[in-house]
Amino acid sequence: MHGGLALATGRGENLTFYDPPKPAFVVVIAVPKNVQVSTKWAYENYQPGDNTRKEEIFATLLPAYRERNIHVLRKQVFNDLESVTLHRYPEVAHIKETLAATGKGVILMSGSGPSVFGLFDERRDAMAAVSGLDQACVDVFVEHTMRPQPR
User: Fold this and answer.
1) Which of 72, 55, 54 is nearest to 63 (CA)?
2) Can you say whether the dihedral through the CA atoms of 84, 85, 88, 90 is positive or negative?
3) CA angle 139, 111, 124 (to 5 degrees)
4) From CA 121, how far away is CA 138, in angstroms rounded?
5) In the beta sheet, which residues pair with residue 17?
6) Radius of gyration of the chain, Cα coordinates, nearest whole angstrom
7) Domains, the chain, ranges and CATH?
8) Does the N-terminal peptide bond of residue 114 adopt cis geometry, omega within 30 degrees of 0?
9) In three state form, how does the secondary structure of 86-104 look?
10) Contact 24, 145 (CB under 8 A)
11) How many whole angstroms separate alpha carbon 51 and alpha carbon 125?
12) pLDDT for 110-150, tens place per residue?
């Protein structure tokens, strides 16, 4: 709602905002129409792994995001809750795999799911990625990120 990139810490209540890169990314959000994921269920079934590298990884993510370095972002981004949701909901895994099939964007599940998002350099790459989705089963939104306007 504020625009830009935000780092959430704690339980998500502590936010640090960063300006988005220029030019803007093209963002795809794909949501399966008949899948709902309980955040409570996802956290109850999540098994924490090794968190020792998270600060180190974030140190590389922010510069990569600002420089629009899709290659570095693709290697470094993660969502721990994917280990739970993608196994239980193959529809979500299919959306992620379909969007990633072009090899052009950064694809990740959002939160506990079922939404999946992608960041792309070019609109044509985003549209190529979504062309493989069955729009009868998936709601798809394609937009550009942008710098927040002064109030």
Assistant:
1) 72
2) negative
3) 45
4) 22
5) 6
6) 15
7) 22-144 (3.30.70.890)
8) yes
9) HHHCHHHHHHHHHHHCCCC
10) yes
11) 33
12) 999 999 999 999 999 999 999 999 989 999 999 876 654 55
pLDDT digits (tens, 9 = 90+) for 28-54: 999 999 999 999 999 999 988 766 666
Could you give the residue ranges of the DSSP H alpha helices within 14-88?
A: 39-45, 54-66, 70-76, 82-88
Tokens 């309980």, residue located: 38
Compute the half-sphere exposure of residue 145: CA atoms within 13 Å on the CB side of its CA. 26
From the list 125, 149, 129, the residue with the least C-alpha distance to 140 is 129
For the question of whether the overall pTM of this predicted structure is more than 0.90, the answer is no
Task: Characterize the bridge pairing of strands 138-144 and 116-120.
Answer: unpaired
Residue 143: what residue type? E
50: its two tokens? 């090794």
